[in-house]
Amino acid sequence: MHDKQDESAQRLIEEFLTARATRKPSPHTLEAYRRDLRAVAALAAEEATPPLPLDALPVAALTARVMRAAFARYAAPRAAASVHRAWSTWNSFFSFLVADGVVAGNPMPAVGRPRAPLPQPKPLRGADTPEQLLASVARQEGRQRDPWPERDLAVLALALCAGLRLSELLALRVGSLTGRAGERRVDVAGKGGRPRVVPIEPELDGVLVGYLESRVRRFGSRTVRPDAPLLVDRQGEPLRRGGLQYLVESCYRRAGITDRVPRGARLHALRHTFATRLAEDGASAAEIMRLLGHASLASSQTYIEVTAGQQRAAVRSNRTNRALAGLVAAERDGRS
């Protein structure tokens, strides 16, 4: 085991990333792993005794003391969520090394980490914005080179009415739509390998049927076999991450609602809108958790808490409450 500890930390990082790639994370996720590992490793090389260049850093130098010092410097200019993500990545890296017999133990439990704040929901702003978006996309516009409103509407409706993530949308197959009329559902390959089933109401079912019929007209019936990707581009090829993001962005522009989309939550704003409306209509945290495929109840609870806060803010803005506040203040002044 000791001779293995002389191995290059950089090379072992690449081995770890290769092993992770077999789990099929998105390229974005894999690159985030690489950035976190290399950034902290560079700091660890500087904290080693004596300091070393990164390409000469052996894994044996990554002691608990060195990792604590490296993470302290890494954390200083960064948000708690970023530090927590990097800590988790390094914890996975050391677990990989332990399992591979490269190191005897994982030093990360001795390295402090901040509690990761739960992300706050970022739904579309405006009470009627989702309806305005859907109505706009359903209209065929002559300005588009090759309009396909049925496909665009299906994408938005799946996110707004079933709460699917970007990766989940891309993973859908035609055969993911199952069940007989009135009991339709979509089988979702969820995040972290957690499958779930989301019921489909007749309205969404009608949108999806219309989309598939339009697809047969464009490309023929062979393109709607059960194992075929559900969402395709205008050439009939499977939609990719960038293409799906561009499609949603263009729908926002055509509907004239770009100013109502929270920053950093373009497609995800549709999923957040779905969850927020569930909470507004009285769904419990457990129901939201099942429908959205959350790993913990705490994530689902944030939608209910935000909704409760919005309700209180609305009550607070009521003009009658403001008038009552004036009467109370006047009465207090009269007593003094």
TrEMBL record:
Name one molecular function that GO assigns to this entry: DNA binding
Instruction: Give the Core-binding (CB) domain ranges.
Output: 7-98
Q: Cite the InterPro entries for this sequence.
A: CB, DNA_brk_join_enz, Integrase-like_cat_sf, Integrase_catalytic, Integrase_recombinase_N, Integrase_SAM-like_N, Tyrosine_recombinase_XerCD
Give the source's domain of life in one word: Bacteria
Gene Ontology biological-process entries: DNA integration; DNA recombination
DNA-binding among keywords: yes
Organism of provenance: Micromonospora echinofusca
| Taxonomic lineage of the native organism | Bacteria, Bacillati, Actinomycetota, Actinomycetes, Micromonosporales
Per its UniProt record, what PROSITE patterns does this chain match?
Answer: CB, TYR_RECOMBINASE
Keywords of this entry: DNA integration, DNA recombination, DNA-binding
What is the name of the protein in this document? Site-specific recombinase XerD
